[in-house]
Design brief:
This protein has one domain. It is 62% helix and 4% strand. It has helices at residues 3-28, 43-51, 56-61, 65-76, 78-99, 122-152, 177-193; strands at 32-35, 38-41. It has a two-stranded antiparallel ribbon. The longest helix is centred in the C-terminal third of the chain and has 31 residues, at 122-152. It is globular. It starts with a helix and ends in a 7-residue tail after the last helix.
């Protein structure tokens, strides 16, 4: 890889680590903590959260008619999501050991903690769980796909791709046949011990 590009990638990773540290500091100021794995808010914050909750009946009755009518379309997405979840979990369970690729930990991607927020009513909590599942699942599937791509074809595209995964920057340049042949084994070996991205 071009040394200047490698330096820029390293700088981006360093800045991402700085951003993660700043976000952690910001979260620390929101007056909640973990006790035996359970999220606990300070009493005054919890009281204020409960005051800001919109009752379920008011929430549903205040919804626009088109929002209510579109809800079944949104919720029907659970079927393909569950099928995707089953497939990618089975896929990595069968294929990753064969190729020596470290498995992706599903629990690192599927996080359900918004139900602890007292300012959300039951329907809002359900919606948050649905979105957490959908986005977490897609990130989980993407990590599985990115490890597969790095094993078989760690080559950048000729065109700019929007929304590339975290591994893409380290792939070989399009048309760099020597780099591909030289570094393919190193890419594959890195996947054996790769714990994957760490959450912020």
């Amino acid at each position: 890889m071009n040394p200047q590009i490698a330096a820029l990638i390293d700088d981006i990773k360093r800045r991402q680590a700085e951003l993660d540290a700043e976000l952690a500091k910001h979260r620390a100021n929101l007056a909640f903590g973990l006790e035996r794995g359970r999220i606990v808010f300070e009493q005054e914050i919890l009281r204020r959260h409960r005051e800001l909750q919109i009752g379920l009946a008011r929430y549903v009755l205040g919804a626009r008619p088109l929002v209510v009518l579109s809800a079944p379309v949104i919720y029907s997405g659970i079927v393909p999501l569950v099928l995707l979840d089953l497939f990618v979990t089975l896929y990595q369970a069968v294929c990753f050991p064969v190729y020596g690729i470290a498995k992706v930990r599903r629990g690192d991607y599927l996080v359900f903690d918004r139900h602890h927020l007292a300012y959300l009513n039951a329907l809002e909590k359900l919606n948050c769980a649905y979105c957490s599942y959908a986005n977490g699942l897609i990130a989980y599937a993407r990590e599985i796909a990115s490890r597969t791509e790095e094993y078989w074809c760690p080559i950048k595209h000729a065109r700019r791709v929007i929304g590339t995964h975290a591994r893409y920057a380290d792939f070989e340049d399009y048309g760099d046949a020597e780099g591909f042949r030289r570094d393919l084994t190193a890419h594959r070996e890195s996947l054996e011990r790769d714990p994957g991205p760490t959450p912020p």
